[in-house]
Amino acid sequence: MSDEKSRTVWADEDYVGAKNQSFLSRLYTGTGAFDIVGKRKMWYVISAAIMLICLLSMIFRGFTPGIDFEGGTQVSLPASASVTTDAASEVFAKTLGQEPESAQTAGSGGSATIQLRTETLSSQDASKLAHAFADAFKPDVTVADVSSSDVSSTWGQEITRKMVIALLVFLVVVFIYIAVRFDREMSAAALVSLLFDVVATAGVYSLVGWEVTPAMVIGLLTVLGFSVYDTVVVFDKVEENTRSVFATSRRTFAEQTNLAVNQTLMRSINTTVISVLPIIALMVVAVWMLGIGTLKDLALIQLVGVVVGTYSSVFLASPMLVSLKERRKDVKRHTAKVLARREKVASA
Q1: What homologous superfamily does CATH list for 6-64+155-347?
Q2: Is 124 helix (H, G, I), strand (E, B) or coil?
Q3: Transmembrane stretches, by residue range (predicted)?
């Protein structure tokens, strides 16, 4: 069944006057005025383009593994007005002849520190670097203030393995739960939505080029839970609207699904805004104002994940559900019945 035929028909009495309402009125009342499902081919193209860009970034640009995944040495020294990330990086490069892989500020106030991460250093290079910092930043920094610690890549590899296992278990559990709670088509649509969330969120992280840290991994699994919640809320309304859809010939399955999406759209927007505001506050206050760079990984992945999760729940999961449902014979017969009735009424 073509998208044009599956679009909401405004002749239905429930939709009379809906087009004349303002944008905000239609958004809050959930009249079905936004033809999201009927324009699903457009959303498929947009989603495919996003996934393609993200996949190409992950393939060609790749990720920037943090010290926890790649292994190496982390050098820390107290931060002050004269001891900044740029100044410390400059001393590092002059002393060892190479730039540090990353430099960031952790903590705030008197407990703030500069953290430099690089490939594994020998004890001689670590000692040489500590004396160089003490000479460059005296009297603010002494040799005793500079500390270095080695991190093995084995721990990062173990974190990666556990993340993959946790992600696979999560997807399987979600698939089974939605299949039992709703049906197989909804379960498949939700799984497609989650896969889009993973690729899009990871792709944005690849495009930005920030280091992949354990916080990023934790944040990714967290936002997938948010996406599932939003999808289940929409699907619950879809199930309610389509429970007796075959008993009438007023609307097609696609139109009832579109109505459900409209009825939950304001809730999805409100949930997203409420979730995004504290994340933005975290980025502004903790990362920008207080300079706690270690929190930016968690903040970015959650910010992107929440927005992507809402998009996929509204513009991908429900349209995908309709596409899967319209493959069934009973849905095809009912759609043809509804359209035939409308043609008969229109010609009368």
Answers
A1: Multidrug efflux transporter AcrB transmembrane domain (1.20.1640.10)
A2: helix
A3: 42-60, 163-180, 187-208, 214-235, 273-293, 299-324
pLDDT for the residue numbered 291: 56
pLDDT digits (tens, 9 = 90+) for 219-250: 787 888 888 888 888 999 999 988 888 888 78
64 — phi, psi (to 5°)? -110, 95
Q: What is the pTM of this model?
A: 0.76
Q: Give the CATH class of 72-151.
A: alpha beta
Which of 243 and 15 is assigned the larger pLDDT?
A: 243
Above 70 in pLDDT, residue 112? yes
pLDDT at 213 over 60: yes
**Tokens representing residue 239 in the block:** 């199930």
* Cα 184 to Cα 58: distance, rounded to the nearest angstrom: 31
Long-range contacts of 157-161 (CB under 8 A, 24+ apart): 157/69, 159/68, 159/69, 159/214, 159/217, 160/69, 160/217
Start-end of CATH 1.20.1640.10 domains in the chain = 6-64+155-347
